[in-house]
Amino acid sequence: MSSIRPSVRTFLLSTALVLLCATGASAAGLGVGTVNADGLRLRAEASTDASILATANSGTHTVVLEDTGDGWYKVSLNGIEGYMSGEYLDVADEGDADLGQGKVESGGSTLNVRSGPGTSYDRLGSLNDGAVVDITGVDSGWYKISFNGSTGYVSGDYLAPCTDSGSTSASSALGQQIVDYAMQYLGTPYVWGGNGPNSFDCSGFTKYVYNHFGYNINRRASHQLQNGVAVDRSELQAGDLVFFYNGKDSTPVSHVGIYIGDGDFIHASSNSYTVEISSLYAPNYDQKYVYARRII
Fold this sequence. Notes:
Number of domains: 2
GO molecular function, one term: cysteine-type peptidase activity
Structural class: mainly beta
Helix content: 10-25%
Distance between the termini: 15 Å
Shape: elongated
Strand content: 35-45%
Number of strands: 21
Largest sheet: 6 strands, antiparallel
Organism: Candidatus Intestinimonas pullistercoris
Radius of gyration: 22 Å
CATH topology of the largest domain: SH3 type barrels
Number of helices: 4
CATH architecture of the largest domain: Roll
């Protein structure tokens, strides 16, 4: 059994071209949050024990949906809804920021676009239910949006932040962040027993990367087979662990890396003695590939 908590999986529409949107926020609680520390974790619940949905570095902007009243905020980070600690989040009722895209959820009617944040401002036009717009800020419970080449405002009750196009779940978003973090260590020397950050062996590298995101996976490659859930090779996604067997060791696997997409994986290689990117389809790895595990 895995020694780590499984990540909360968000079962959303599977079509890659569909924008995924959070539930519309109450206008009264709407605000903009700015992360003030690197590696702030977006949690599934308002607790440090809750599963990690994503991480954000200093300067990242989020849509604040609700103050939970216990030192946490319910937020939308790139359309992924979760909770962030208020200790590392500067919150304001208004502010300009690139907050991604939003989808109009007006129950089938049109949504008025105003020249300012309130119904007393001039009407600039309207948006149809389902329309997708760029969110450029928040002001007094209203979203500031790009509208016909200028700036408009719509009520926060009828606009839902959306994920980036092509993202299908919180799990895949975090998987890409894991890959991005691992890529920082390209070229780091391979040393047997290396635990990082100045040197790694293969399982030391995977453990170090996952530990950064709050996942305490096992140390040895063969023991990391006990973490997460099995994944078929045809269903690999960014962040999955991929395992290989050289046919010589007494353990079920002899090597492990992190899948990055397009048939490639990043790993601490004992062949090149460095952290590098290799292809699963290279003869040396295609013939030795045996398993994959999904940790998040």
